[in-house]
Amino acid sequence: MADKSATTPAGADEQELTDGFHLVIEALKLNGLTTIYGVPGIPITDLGRMAQAEGIRVLSFRHEQNAGYAAAIAGYLTKKPGVCLTVSAPGFLNGLTAAAHATTNCYPMILISGSSEREVVDLQQGDYEEMDQLAVAKSMCKAAFRVLHAADIGIGVARAIRAAVSGRPGGVYLDLPAKLFGQVMNAEAGKKSLIKVIDSAPAQIPAPDAVKRALDVLKSAKRPLIILGKGAAYAQADDAIKALVEKSGIPFLPMSMAKGLLSDMHPQCAGAARSNVLRDSDVVLMIGARLNWLLSHGKGKSWGEAPKKFIQIDIEPREMDSNVEIAAPLVGDIGSCVAALLDGMGSHWTAPPAEWTAAINGKRDDNVAKMAPRLMNNNSPMDYHGALGALRTVIKERPDTILVNEGANTLDLARGIIDIYKPRKRLDVGTWGVMGIGMGQAIAAAVETGNRVLAVEGDSAFGFSGMEVETICRYNLPICIVVFNNGGIYRGTDVNAESADPATTVFVPGARYDKMMEAFGGVGVQAESPDALKRAVDEALSSGKPTLINAVIDPAAGSESGRIGNLNPQSVLKKK
Ligand code: OXT
Ligand code: ADP
Ligand code: MG
User: How far is CA 476 from CA 109, 131, 512, 517, in A?
Assistant: First the structure.
């Protein structure tokens, strides 16, 4: 309860009082939001202190963007909004990138920022960290709210929670002006003003005729395919999805973060025959995946010439027909939609034609066999395949480890090489292909699940959030970071022939990222061969000690932009 000597309403001497600080904390706790990721400062330093004193776990980061990425992935992993707390203007803007990222990726997250005085901000009189944050947030977030009165804090938090998790999840902004925290009110009335959100993400049952339509289209298929996206992983309907895939006998293609929803070793997994299944399938059932750039918008060369019919399960009706016609839209939550399909399939479902499944399995086995020898090399300096071959074995032996992955070559090759065995064990750059998610995701994964975390990072990617190694050491988290150090963005070999400045894509050669971890009391290791890398990672994951392994990769081993070099615009003028 608040100190009664604070600014009190008339006649308040006799009453028990509360204030904005305490109401925010109580509102979060009442709704089970017991972890905050953030950076302290005016006007929210005391909010963090008090939250910690009241039993909320408050993790202080070195930069708000990383705290925001942590909150966003916490939302993905738990289906509860992850909370990020920032100071006004610049801190808010740092956190906003992550809230926008959460919205883009459909992760539930609440960005709470302190803000400056409305009266001064609105007259643009130059307040400390002045900014109309609500206006800025509106265009980047799924929803944005401001609370001006202590009595409305309960409503504000409840609205933010509902907006973040119901329907298609996303990033929500909650603006709390500095003055709000000190506002005092009667404690009993304050308690009554709080809301425990009931059924924050209600089941959305699909319409029976939509289910029938979907089953009719699926039955008509000769070469069916199921695509699982990260929405399917988020939904935590793991058993129902496995049952649907297995009952249907249809090959499935996991999108990057849906790997492991069913094991990559599952006999129906077509991950290693990606091009073929996209090109040759005739009916595609999409479960929690969008036909965006990652699926070539559902058209063009990679989808082949033959006509294709799409069935799409999504909670967001407006997703349908976003890029191509959806023959059978199935709007609802994935758990309910998959259960309805299973029900409608009855006890006799005809498996897809054997020529189709055999062709896919043949291609998959060919690709796997082609890759196998490349993964066995013990070259020094390492190439990507040798290094990732070692990490692939680590994950096979420790399938509960959560893999965080960013970079270009480091991302694209790890995605194909490292098999994932369990749901939600692969976290990566997501829909935007954003660098910088690494340390925030690693920290939240460790905090939210208690599992070991292996972060496989390009040296450029790591640099975006590298200072958080101090945070990892401070909270003593069981995170092993492997920096794939090839001395640059994509490669470390570019040369600028025109001046003494280095080329734009290269870094200091031979850098020792492992020393950064040692600086804060963690374990640093330099690994120059796949065998040494495997030994070091095993030791780190066994001990649980914060560890950074500087994995020396041949600077010439990567390719421009990894697997997406085709997206680079080309100049019609000759390169110098
Ligand atoms: O079927 P085919 O024959 O085609 O074969 C496919 C599969 O069937 C097969 N496969 C397998 N074979 C055998 N065995 C197994 N197990 C197996 N599994 C699969 O392999 C192939 C390929 O399969 P894949 O990967 O599934 O298929 P494909 O065709 O690649 O899929 C297409 C996509 C689009 C779905 C996929 O490529 C994808 O998900 N891509 C995501 C790419 C992405 O998001 N990239 C990150 C952004 S790149 C760039 O923007 C970077 N920046 C700029 C920047 C960014 N991003 N952000 C910010 C805030 N600022 C700037 C920067 C700075 S990257 C970057 C840093 C890079 O440098 P680093 O040092 O960090 O990293 P290095 O490159 O390592 O130096
Ligand atoms: P990926 O990148 O793996 O292809 P996307 O992020 O593009 O996945 O797509 C995820 C989709 O899942 C989004 O369209 C989102 O609306 C949907 N989604 C998220 N949660 C649910 C849910 N519980 N039920 C149904 N659809 C969901
Ligand atoms: Mg690199």
Answer: 25, 36, 22, 12
